UniProtKB/TrEMBL annotation:
It comes from the Archaea. GO terms for cellular component: cytoplasmic side of plasma membrane; cytosol. This is CobQ/CobB/MinD/ParA nucleotide binding domain-containing protein. Keywords: ATP-binding, Nucleotide-binding. InterPro entries: CobQ/CobB/MinD/ParA_Nub-bd_dom (IPR002586), CooC (IPR014433), P-loop_NTPase (IPR027417), ParA/MinD_ATPase (IPR050625). One of its GO terms (molecular function) is ATP hydrolysis activity. It comes from Candidatus Methanoperedens nitratireducens. It holds the Pfam family CbiA. Residues 4-227 form the CobQ/CobB/MinD/ParA nucleotide binding domain. PANTHER family: CARBON-MONOXIDE DEHYDROGENASE ACCESSORY PROTEIN, SEPTUM SITE-DETERMINING PROTEIN MIND HOMOLOG, CHLOROPLASTIC-RELATED. GO terms for biological process: negative regulation of cell division. The keyword Nucleotide-binding applies.
Length: 250
């Protein structure tokens, strides 16, 4: 079982990279779970999957119903059954969307139950890919933990790599159990590629690969089309494919 989390500051194309990575991984034989842990929940749109309910809805359910349940009710089992209700099974992967709670109550009770449930669910898969929200603070509060590899998506600038450096420091200060961290430079042009590679060396960042700027991807994004429909020969799809191979993901 391996858990890979993908993060980065807003506007870097983090979710697009996550979606393309998932598409490449499905070419192999790994049992794959994709988790959208971003409250904005854009990964289903990128993958072209319709979602009706989220983990956030199940937290709401537990908050509203727990006091109505008989005292001897195993509440963790109840919530676990609800989690499986919102697990979307696709032909080559499963998708779980965290969503966000809508009410104003305290979700500590439900979140505590979810931690154990998610630990059990992840063990059913060879690989879990998590599309997180921007930043890292949420990882210390989320039910997802013990990340094997953290992928930080950045844009083609020195400032973007400096943001990745801050994320690296934050992961250490929060004492998150992140075993490895890599950087992916996205929307890279031929003019700035050499500079990005030089900046990465200066900052001692593990640049696992670059994803070229892709006019086809930009058009898909503008039209709201799922990036899962991108042709295999698109520049961005090829770039992510090389990264997936380098990481041994398929």
């Amino acid at each position: 079982m391996k858990v890979i989390a993908i993060t980065g500051k807003g506007g870097t194309g983090k979710t697009a990279v996550a979606g393309m990575l998932i598409k490449h991984i499905t070419k192999g034989n790994k049992a794959l779970l994709a988790i959208d842990a971003d409250p904005d929940s854009n990964l289903p749109d990128v993958l072209g999957v319709k979602i009706d309910k989220t983990i956030g809805d199940m937290r709401e359910f537990m908050l509203q119903e727990r006091d109505k349940m008989p005292p001897d009710t195993n509440k963790e089992r109840v919530l676990e059954s609800k989690v499986y209700e919102v697990l979307t099974e696709m032909p080559h992967y499963d998708l779980l969307v965290m969503g966000r709670p809508e009410g104003s109550g305290c979700y500590c009770f439900a979140n505590n139950l979810l931690r154990g449930i998610m630990d059990r669910i992840l063990k059913n898969y060879d690989l879990t890919i998590i599309d997180t929200a921007a930043g890292l603070e949420h990882l210390s509060r989320r039910i997802i933990r013990d990340v094997d590899e953290l992928l930080v998506v950045t844009d083609g600038s020195r400032r973007g790599l400096q943001t990745a450096e801050r994320i690296r420091g934050l992961a250490v200060s929060l004492n998150l159990n992140v075993k490895k961290m890599h950087v992916i430079a996205n929307k890279v042009t031929p003019e700035n590629r050499a500079r990005i590679e030089e900046y990465a060396r200066e900052l001692k960042m593990d640049l696992v690969g670059v994803v070229p700027f892709d006019e086809t991807l930009a058009r898909f994004d503008l039209e709201g089309r799922p990036l899962a429909e991108l042709p295999e020969d698109s520049a961005a799809m090829r770039g992510v494919g090389e990264i997936a191979k380098r990481m041994g993901l398929y």
